[in-house]
Specification:
43% of the residues lie in helices and 17% in strands. The protein is an alpha/beta fold. The protein has one domain: Aldolase class I (TIM Barrel, Alpha-Beta Barrel). It has an 8-stranded parallel β-barrel with strand order 1-2-3-4-5-6-7-8, surrounded by 4 helices. Strand 6, helix 7 and strand 7 form a beta-alpha-beta unit. Helix 2 runs parallel beside helix 10. The radius of gyration is 15 Å and the shape is globular. It starts with a helix and ends with a helix. The mean pLDDT is 95.
Amino acid sequence: MGLLEKLKLYLVLETNYLQMPLSIFLENVIKGGVTAIQLRNKQQNTDEKIKCAYMVREITAKFNTLFIMNDSVDMAVKSYADGVHLGINDGDISAIRQKYHNLIIGYSCNNLEDAAVADKFADYAGIGPYTETYTKKDHRQILGIQGINNINKSLHIPAVAIGGINADNAAEVIKAGTKGLAVSSFLCKSKNPYDDAKRLLDIINERV
């Protein structure tokens, strides 16, 4: 399975929202169709986050699911993650690319300048936010469908749309042209993560 296929349904994991133990949640969303998991958990300290990362790594490896660590290259390396997702304030992406050849690097894009950086140094882009999102309070300008489409058309690497995406708006967001969707609270807060992941994947597969 290539990177494009592994980005189809991308979970941004915030464990404080979970309605069940982490291990059970992970197995359910992966079996339901999640193809990549990014561990964000900004509220955790380093020790808590690395303990959580080891569990995510163990389960994603079992199911051959992509594991991405948010923000921290050091933590990505320490937890044997497949990659790291970076924003504009997360270090020099060119230096990180040069040093860590084997890491998949994702980059957050909110405008065409970000997209140019992503094209040069990253393996995939996360374009957003699509709409208001409550899992990230310090988000940048809302892009909507047109904004995501404009950025996506400028890219030469795979991209996922992100920011406030759920089963009600997923079909609409896919019209922006990305081949995958990144989802956080809709799945993390779900009491039926298998069913909700499957529902999202079905929507994506119908339109991609």
